[in-house]
Amino acid sequence: MKDAVILEAVRTPYAKRGGAYRETRPDALLAFALGGLLGRAGLDPAKVEDVVTGAVTQAGEQGANVGRLAVLLAGLPVEVPAVSLNRMCGSGQQAIHFASQGIDAGDQTYAIGCGVESMSRVPMFSDIGGGFERLNPDLLAKVDLIHQGESAERIAQRWGLSRADLDAFAAESHRRAAASRAQHAELLPAPGLDAQGQLLTLEADEGVRAQLDPAKMAGLKPAFREDGVVTAANASQISDGAAAVLVGDREAALADGLRPRARFRARVAVGDDPTLQLMGVIPATRKALAKAGLTLGDLDWIEVNEAFASVVLAWAKELGADLNRVNPWGGAIAHGHPLGASGAGLTAKMLAGLEATGGTLGLQTMCIGHGMATATIIERV
Asked: Do 323 and 274 touch, CB atoms closer than 8 A?
């Protein structure tokens, strides 16, 4: 077997829905990320043998194999192929898994795992033309598929999490994101528009709030239940963004003068309860740790995607995790969650965080709709 390593990892700053990227097509946003990735790495684009792309809502401008369209827009050689996949919120992370597994198998020498989502231009559920009522009635009779927001409420109830707990976690996510703003080496400043339609360069995540009004946060109405605890403030932001990770065979990369930055210790995907649906992060974490022969205490950096505050807090409660090592630079509640891009973006952020702090081992796990989760453990080299 070959030895797959991460050579470069970038993400665009994330923009709010209707924000800086509102006039940027998703294929163009991903093309920008791909060009920036290869430019930073210094790799001849002709050496890339596949581009595996995560995109959740594959319709309209995000359809027709958006990965291949972005490859062509970015000016990569026509010989570079691409494929687009949908493992929902874990799509970008799964793209990295597939790309690195291709390297380990010896099928490729260099590949890119990436992701994109323009939630401004391609709204959620537009791929199925509506909500859950569009799904197979036989499936709906067999499985209680509910909105993720209701799942988040059930998680809060089951793990005894209050509205105050969730709001405090959300406020801390923004505080950490704002405090770390100057440290994000993974960010690739990207062109966009300001509120007046003038060109700008977005250099930081648009949704991060340096100052929060606790009274305003406490006054928000619950989003999914009249007496619920989940609000717009303690859930992930709807966002636009792209991210890309270059992986390659270690020996070949060294021969080409490239610097390996991390290797893979574990890559897993799991299925879980499709109704509670967001707590697959618990078995995914346990499985990844077992594969790597590690414990939570061995990890220097942990990314648990902040789809909802209740998911991260329940995960931490169940596993006895130290929250000081979880999402040290904030998470999706603050910086946003462009669905297909988030998995690759969190990998890029985690690698930058490990390098900034001198850490060695990092875990990334993401909850996924319909009851799944992905997890990755990387080790800096």
From this structure: no
Which superfamily does CATH assign the domain made up of 264-380 to? Thiolase/Chalcone synthase (3.40.47.10)
Using one digit for the tens of pLDDT, what is the confidence trace for 54-102? 999 999 999 999 999 999 999 999 999 999 999 999 999 999 999 999 9
Following DSSP, what letter does each residue of 19-64 receive, concatenated? Answer: STTTTS-HHHHHHHHHHHHHHHHT--GGG---EEEE-SS-SGGGTT
Q: How far apart are CA 110 and CA 51, in angstroms?
A: 9
Measure the CA–CA gap between 228 and 222, rounded to whole angstroms: 5
**E strand or H helix at 164:** helix 163-179
pTM equals 0.98
300, amino acid identity: D
Query: Per-residue pLDDT tens for 304-317?
Result: 999 999 999 999 99
Closest to 149 measured CA to CA, from 367, 377, 380: 367
Q: Hey, which residues are catalytic here?
A: 89, 337, 367
